[in-house]
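I hope you will forgive my troubling you with a question about protein structure. I am sending you one protein, given as its amino acid sequence and as whole-number tokens for its backbone shapes. Thank you for your consideration; the sequence and its tokens are set out here:
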Amino acid sequence: MLRWLRNSFLTGIVVATPVAVTIWIVYTFINFVDSTVKPLIPMRYNPESYLPFAIPGMGLLIAIVGLTLLGALAANIFGRTLISIGERLVNSLPLVRNVYGALKQIVETVMAGKENSFKEVVLVEYPMAGHHAVAFVSAQAKGAIANELGEDVIGVFVPTTPNPTSGFLLFTPRSKTIKLDMSVEEAAKLIISFGLVTPERLPKGAIPSKAPAKTGHLERHGAGEDQPNAPPETEPQA
């Protein structure tokens, strides 16, 4: 009875924890956006000033509408002209232009699509020989790095655990990496979970565990299929 209660309690934790954490993250994000956007809305345009209750998610909705309008404005000639003028002003500031340029390049790379995202998952020897770390292949080495190290060098991002958004950028020959039959999403789950969550797939060339048992069954009964009613062999009596 105690074991059943213990197992039921642990199962409840396993089921409830992902749901609770997901709800908490969504709730925190919505509250953060609401608290940031709502003070920027004039009182006469704020529906909450006419209603006796607050509207959760209104700030997030306004932010989505505002970003959509900003994107539509930037798509035409007038918007591109304004953005160009603003960027020239920012580039005239010594410190701000470095921060703005780096952030703009990062955002454009992330939002560009799959062609600029991580391509494959590999193992690299890090931080020393004989020890391997999971890494994401970012791009082929180009420019000065390729001239110094060779054309077969690739850039890999080695994320940290459990926060995969931070890590190290390494350049290593492709011949010294081990390609994994694993998607980027599966590798991210592996890193976030401290290696506890592994992809549920068999290595290349592996045979499922049930196959040998089935094969053995057919081998044992294969001869009897042609003669299902064959009597068992008996020793001759003296």
